[in-house]
Specification:
The chain is an alpha/beta fold. The protein has 15 helices and eleven strands. It is flat and about 80 Å long. The protein binds guanosine-5'-diphosphate and magnesium ion.
Length: 383
């Protein structure tokens, strides 16, 4: 869909649009759908459904014409190019939203919610963003600002802290956290990856060193999107390709929020295997001992000791206790008290403003909060 926004919107589209039936676009009432062709200098560019948006329903509150083209890139590009040659300026989605924030038809938080919505990974993420678009967070922040102004500092501050605590959940919904599966060759990393992703995606083989490129998939656990990556086994090697892939694994580990440390329970862990721990931030590690249906050689207590955390005992092959492991992956994100309609902090800008407000005196804090909703700097009054 192409939106043409501004004073000349109807005039520009009118010049390109040939309705299938009599009514011209400029004689059509707002809200009516017109079917026809987009024609430029005698050349048909696409068939489209065109409608004039009622001004009070348009995103920026300005005259807006919506052109629903066919899907695919080429026809849409051709239509867009013709509109631009007639004097329109091409704008990205976020620019349109910024304009909506300026014209006052959306506040800054609502604009952020709409901007994030098209890339929401899960229905829960979409729901949360739609709620904030509808004003949940803006209302919550404004209510706190009023409490602070009314001299109710204690209640305001505690509401502010509670709101800040929603940010881990909000962030995780908007930008999937990264989890990587790491371990020695043959530990069963690719088998585990496949089992969690739910379909055969990676080559599983008995030959150590089969997985050379890291493979990633976004999965949804309890509504929370998570980017899961299978990696090459970590071991000392001289093989040129494998050396590169081991380097790649370390890069992935550095970028990860969670590292699933996978052990083959049926084999003794090598000193190499234990050494990996020393280079990974312990707070990220979720340990798991795989092949639990085989006679066990690894001591789970030793794993617990080394990573300060009890390992999950799983069988990737048989799918045993994978739900337990999955629950651990989102344990610190899941928001047990969340219900639809709740105010959730979901951008760094919002979180920083709330944190700053927490450190200020009530009057300044209230001003900071109001500015964070409007998208202005404190002290700057927008009409
Ligand atoms: N018995 C058993 N074998 C497994 C299990 N998980 C993986 N394997 C086997 O271990 C071998 C190596 O698996 P793979 O997933 O390629 O390991 P990776 O090198 O860590 O990616 C394969 O033969 C798998 O079938 C498990 O839970 N139990
Ligand atoms: Mg593998």
């Amino acid at each position: 869909m192409i939106n043409v926004v501004g004073r000349r919107a109807v005039e520009i589209v009118e010049a390109l649009f040939q309705p299938a039936r009599g009514v011209r676009l400029n004689q059509s009432p707002p809200g009516r759908l017109l079917y026809g062709r987009i024609i430029d200098e005698g050349r048909a560019l696409d068939e489209a459904i065109v409608t004039i948006c009622p001004t009070n329903e348009s995103l920026t509150g300005e005259p807006t014409v919506e052109i629903n083209c066919h899907g695919g890139i080429a026809a849409v590009r051709a239509v867009l190019a013709s509109i631009v040659t007639r004097g329109a300026v091409k704008a990205e989605w976020h620019e349109l939203l910024a304009r909506a924030a300026v014209t006052g038809s959306l506040d800054a938080i609502q604009a952020e919610a709409i901007e994030a919505l098209p890339s929401a990974f899960s229905p829960l993420a979409a729901q949360m963003l739609i709620d904030q678009w509808n004003g949940s967070l803006s209302r919550a922040i404004t209510a706190i600002a009023l409490q602070l102004q009314a001299g109710d500092a204690r209640q305001g501050t505690s509401a502010l802290s509670a709101l800040l605590q929603t940010s881990d959940f909000g962030f995780a919904l908007v930008r999937p956290r990264r989890a990587v599966i790491v371990g020695a060759p043959n530990a069963g990393k690719s088998t585990l990856f496949n089992a969690i992703v739910g379909h055969q995606r990676v080559i599983v083989a008995e030959v150590p060193g089969t997985t050379r490129d890291a493979v990633a998939e976004t999965i949804i656990l309890d509504g929370i999107p998570l980017e899961l990556t299978d990696t090459a086994g970590l071991r000392d090697t001289d093989h040129v390709v494998e050396v590169e892939s081991v380097k790649g694994t370390w890069r992935r580990i550095a970028e990860a929020d969670t590292v699933i440390m996978l052990f083959d329970g049926s084999r003794e862990a090598t000193p190499d295997g234990w050494a990996i721990f020393e280079d990974i931030d312990a707070s990220c590690i979720v340990p798991a001992i795989n092949k639990c249906e085989l006679p066990q050689v690894i001591d789970p207590d030793e794993v617990s000791r080394r990573c300060n955390c009890t390992p999950c005992l799983i069988s990737a092959l048989e799918g045993t206790r994978l739900d337990e492991l999955e629950a651990r992956l989102i344990a610190d994100i899941r928001h047990s008290s969340y219900s639809p309609g709740d105010a959730i902090v979901f951008t760094a800008r919002q979180r920083n403003a709330l944190r700053d407000a927490l450190a200020l005196q009530p009057a300044e804090a209230a001003e900071m909060l109001e500015s964070s909703v409007k998208g202005t700097k404190p002290g700057e009054n927008r009409q």
